[in-house]
TrEMBL record:
Organism whose genome encodes this protein: Mucilaginibacter aquatilis
Pfam entry (one): zf-UBP
Identification of the protein by name: UBP-type domain-containing protein
InterPro entries registered for this protein in UniProt: Znf_RING/FYVE/PHD (IPR013083), Znf_UBP (IPR001607)
Gene Ontology molecular-function annotations: zinc ion binding
Length: 90
């Protein structure tokens, strides 16, 4: 997707944050499990994806209003804007 077609949230990301540890912070607290991880680009929290039982990243998005997350999966290099439902590879 051309840069000019991206939303302001995705074009504002100049440095992608990925969590230091490969864990969902909320699942660890709740002794839960996750499938894939995502890192919030506003606050840096790493949480589980919508394929995971608790869907912590989406819950975080709606509680916090933070619009963009990045895949924290090894080998994946993409961002997602919840507000505009747009993806950007980096």
């Amino acid at each position: 997707m051309a840069e000019e077609n991206l939303c302001e949230h995705l074009t504002a990301i100049t440095e992608v944050k990925i969590g230091d540890e490969y864990v969902c912070e909320e699942c660890v607290k709740q002794n839960g499990t996750w499938l894939h991880l995502r890192t919030c680009q506003t606050c840096g929290v790493t949480l589980c994806c919508d394929s995971s039982p608790q869907k912590h990243m989406t819950k975080h998005r709606f509680r916090s209003g933070h619009p963009v997350m990045a895949s924290a999966e090894p080998g994946e290099r993409w961002l997602w804007c919840y507000e505009h439902e747009m993806m950007r590879e980096y």
